[in-house]
Write a structure and sequence with these properties.
Elements lengths: L13 E5 L2 E4 L4 H11 L3 H7 L7 H15 L5 H15 L11 E2 L8 E9 L2 E8 L4 E6 L3 E19 L11 E11 L4 E4 L6 E19 L9 E10 L2 E7 L1
Helix pairs in contact: 3-4
The chain binds fe (ii) ion (FE2).
The site of fe (ii) ion has 6 residues, from loops.
Length: 247
């Protein structure tokens, strides 16, 4: 959603990520293990990863911020993936987070979409969002901040797109856009917006509605407006649509 507030390897297999520290393998463990090894995270942090215990939001921030600060500098495609997946490995363990006061998102295709904020820190901000049953957040591009979206409640379909060819947020007229992801975001599920991939996302709430968090990290020069993706509905080939930008 907003860029700026002012705007699972077979389960059960294990791997040793540092001497004496054994963790259970999950989908993106290799990336995480490499990241942790490279960062020489204190043993207490890695030991905690070996458990399924939930952590408070405050402990989440305390643990993840030092790691995020070390990974955020690499803004390459691979660097952003490493950053977002590492952030995700901590975020999925959050036990609970308070629901802040919310206002209309301003990004809905109609009423029923709301945003507020929870404390974040350097280098990311945290947007807390809620969607009423059947509501829609229009697909929009993230141009300067990558995003980790975490589902907390309900069921939301999230779709990602990207431009085919050279990325141009000032493109006039029509261009081709590819749908790169389409998934159901349920509690504990994550979706990534890497500024090099999947950088356009939109949300459609199920009849149950839903709620979640967006961890947004600004890594590029801010743009004054958010480009919204207009899809003509004309599918020129499987998963490829004629599209244009709107504000
Ligand atoms: Fe967004």
């Amino acid at each position: 959603m907003y860029e700026d507030w002012t705007e699972e390897l077979p389960i059960g297999e294990t791997a040793e990520v540092s001497p004496g520290v054994i963790v259970e393998r999950r989908c993106f463990l290799t990336t995480i293990a490499l990241a942790l090894g490279a960062l020489a995270i204190p043993a207490t942090a890695t030991e905690k990863l070996a458990t399924d215990e939930r952590i408070s939001y405050e402990d989440f921030l305390k643990e993840v911020i030092p790691v995020a600060k070390k990974l955020v500098a690499d803004t390459s495609l691979a660097g952003q993936h490493r950053y977002l997946l590492t952030l995700a490995s901590y975020a999925v363990r959050i036990a609970d987070v308070s629901v802040p006061q919310m206002r209309d998102s301003g990004q809905g295709a109609g009423p029923g979409t709301f945003i507020g904020s929870n404390p974040g820190g350097d280098p990311f901000i945290v947007i807390h969002w809620r969607m009423e049953p059947g509501s829609i957040i229009r697909p929009h591009a993230h141009t300067y901040g990558n995003v980790l979206t975490l589902g907390l409640e309900g069921e939301i379909r999230v779709e990602n797109f990207e431009m085919i060819g050279v990325r141009d947020f000032d493109a006039k007229g029509t261009f081709k856009a590819r749908k790169t992801q389409s998934q159901i975001l349920t509690p504990g599920q994550v979706n990534l917006v890497n500024l090099e991939r999947d950088y356009i996302h939109g949300f459609q709430a199920s009849m149950r509605g839903g709620r979640g968090l967006d961890f947004t990290t600004r890594i590029k020069e801010r743009r004054p407006t958010t480009p919204y993706l207009n899809l003509s509905g004309k599918q020129v080939e499987t998963g490829v649509f004629e599209a244009s930008w709107a504000t």
